[in-house]
Amino acid sequence: MPTKSHQIVIADGHPLFRVSLMNAITEYYPDATIELPESFGTLNRVMGAGLKPDLLILDLTLPESAGFSGLIMLLANFRRVPVLVISANTTPRVISKAIEHGASGFLSVDSDSEEISSAIGCILKDGVWIPADVGLSQGHLSDSEAKAAQLIGRLTPQQFHIAAEMAEGLTNLHIMKKLNLTKVQFKKQLDSILRKLEVRTRKQAIVSINYLHRVLNATTTTLQ
Predict the structure, then answer these.
(1) Residue 200: DSSP 8-state
(2) What region holds the HTH luxR-type domain (predicted)?
(3) In this structure, what are the phi and psi dihedrals at residue 8, rounded to the nearest 5 degrees?
(4) DSSP 13-81
(5) What is the domain count for the chain?
(6) Counting C-beta atoms within 10 Å of the first and last residue's C-beta, which end of the chain has fewer, N or C?
């Protein structure tokens, strides 16, 4: 049984599965320190506060994550943190996209504790884990997917959150209050978002972020 203490983040939006994952991990890694953010916004705050876990387990349907968009942003901003993706959608293309975007592994939500432990052990040793009974798609990211990933990857966690809130229809004032930002701080972040997304106006940024989310999740009509 592993003896080294590890810090692991389980970012999953399903309470029962979150507990199941935690129990499976503590069975094999009893000394592990586990964080349990329930939304992408909470995960961003935890990571942005300086947490450097040995492993991040990410549910592709985590609230506010926008599927692959959230994965890409995390990988771009926290390059040294390996990410193990969890999803009920285990089609070869979904798994391939997760790995192509930089995830260190992929697990089905139906995985038992032994497989979860094996996946974690593999990734902690710098390996890559995919389900044994799944053959990866031979396709590569399209040019539009690669460009979309590049643009999303430019955003910081806070900028990603702001862009997502704008896309949801929130006003600048509501976003400032929700994220506890001053007008000056918000304007600075908005200007940076516009520049990074290569647009000129707030409206164009909203159109752009929605388009990027659609492109990145185009092959996954449902991730759940």
Answers:
(1) S
(2) 148-213
(3) -130, 135
(4) S-HHHHHHHHHHHHHH-TT-EEE---SHHHHHHHHHTT---SEEEEETT-TTSTTHHHHHHHHHH-TTS
(5) 2
(6) N
CATH number of domain containing 188: 1.10.10.10
Determine the structural domain holding residue 60 and report its residue range: 7-124
For 210, the token pair is: 């929605």
- Name residue, tokens 């300086």: 50
Residue 104 and residue 46 share a domain: yes
| The token pair that represents 145 in the structure block | 């997917």
Provide the pLDDT confidence category of residue 115 given band limits of 50, 70 and 90.
Answer: very high
Q: Are 14 and 96 within one domain?
A: yes
Do 115 and 202 share a domain, yes or no?
A: no
Give the model confidence (pLDDT) of 122-134 as tens digits.
999 999 998 876 6
pTM score? 0.88
pLDDT digits (tens, 9 = 90+) for 173-183: 999 999 999 99
CA dihedral in degrees (133, 213, 160, 223; nearest 10)?
Answer: -30
Residue with tokens 């697990």: 107
CA–CA dist 184, 31 (Å, integer): 44
